[in-house]
Amino acid sequence: MFSGLVTGNAHIANIKKDEHTITMVIKTVPANLKDLKIGDSIAVNGCCLTVESFTETTFTVTMMPQTFKKTIFKDSKIGDQVNMERSLQLKSRLEGHIVTGHIDDVIFLVKKQQNENAVELFFKLPKRLISQVVAQGSIAINGTSLTVMDIHDDIFSVGLIPHTQEETNLAKLNVGDQVNVETDILGKYVAKNLVNFQGAQ
After folding, report:
1. Example GO biological process term (predicted)?
2. Residues 118-177: pLDDT tens digits?
3. For residue 70, how many other CB atoms are within 10 A of its CB?
4. Residue 11: exposed, middle, or buried by beta-carbon count in 10 A (0-12, 13-18, 19+)?
């Protein structure tokens, strides 16, 4: 379980792609890996992955077929900046929102605009996720907890304050780039219950 408060101080140091799996070595600063253990969960661009081995500044993870198909990692390369987050501890403040690390889909950036010192990003949603996204609700983009500014049909927007621009890889996105998206877990349950309720009528 994660909060969506990520650090962008990490990048892909090595990546090996097979037909259905990807093994990555992620490099970051030692402070991000303090007390790390084999088997720990770390979210990389919002995807919950298991640490298989580590050094003072790197950790290695492997993605299985389902993760391979549903994330942007199949197109990733050495040197790419990634957002990372260690899993929550029970004593931690939940300052973002509840993020599971289970990616729903890959979506595209369709528009990017500067609003004074903030950057507004517009993304296109697949039809099956539209009911799970609401204005002023939460969403995780590449693992980053963000507030949905607005949504019209299948296009929603989020804003990046200067801190988020500096601490994540989102400000570097260009129109057409793909990102991992996870909708709010609360929205999933609401949408599911509405479907069940309507089906029972």
Report:
1. riboflavin biosynthetic process
2. 999 999 999 999 989 999 999 999 999 999 999 999 999 999 999 999 999 999 999 999
3. 17
4. middle
CB-CB contact of 193 with 162 (8 Å): no
Does 149 map to a domain? Answer: yes
Look at residue 50 and tell me if it is in a domain: yes
**47 domain-assigned:** yes
Domain membership of residue 148 as a residue range: 105-200
Sign of the alpha-carbon dihedral angle for 128, 188, 72, 21: negative
pLDDT of residue 194: 65
Report how far Cα 188 is from the mean position of its chain's Cα atoms: 16
Phi first, then psi: give them for residue 64, nearest 5 degrees: -85, 175
> Is the residue at 153 inside a domain?
yes
Task: Tell me, yes or no, whether 41 and 73 share the same domain.
Answer: yes
d(CA 201, CA 191): 16
| Same domain assignment for residues 112 and 80 | no
Task: Count CB-CB contacts under 10 A for residue 166.
Answer: 10
Radius of gyration of the chain (CA): 17
Number of folded domains that form the chain: 2
Structure tokens at 108: 């595209």
